[in-house]
Write a structure and sequence with these properties.
The protein has 122 residues and is an alpha+beta fold. It has a single domain (3-119), classed as first zn-finger domain of poly(adp-ribose) polymerase-1 (2-Layer Sandwich). It is built from three helices and five strands, in the order E-E-E-E-E-H-H-H. It starts with a strand and ends with a helix. Bound molecules: zinc ion (ZN).
Length: 122
């Protein structure tokens, strides 16, 4: 069981949809994630609200899911039961913010190093 190919991007809904993970309504005009690809020989597609997309993305980043994919419709219960995460959204937001902060720290360190190198006069 694995993905042969997969591609996803954020799109605006041209008609009403439901999130494949949490069943929340996706309204016309609402930004959400659309993914499509081939899994186990079948062409499949899915629409995810941005909350679920964030949680699932952070699950991949945390190595909670592998190339067999994530447990669709059971992401929150899996995070709770297997990883002790009661509030999946808060967990995902915290992880995303920590990664952004780390990237900004690295960018600032690189800028400091570049400045120091440029100012260096032997
Ligand atoms: Zn959702």
């Amino acid at each position: 069981m694995s993905y042969e190919f997969w591609s996803s991007k954020n799109v605006k809904a041209r008609k009403p949809y439901r999130c494949c993970e949490c069943s929340a309504a996706i309204a016309v005009g609402e930004l959400h994630n659309y993914g499509a690809g081939k899994f186990d020989g079948y062409l499949v597609d899915q629409r995810l609200c941005l909350n679920c997309d964030l949680i699932i993305s952070e699950g991949f980043n945390a190595d909670f899911w592998d190339d067999e994919g994530f447990p669709l419709t059971e992401v929150r219960s899996t995070l709770r039961d297997e990883h002790g995460i009661d509030d999946a959204h808060a967990w995902a937001v915290e992880r995303r913010q920590a990664r952004i902060a780390k990237r900004e720290d690295e960018a600032a360190a690189t800028a400091r190093a570049t400045r120091a190198a440029n100012e260096y006069r032997p």
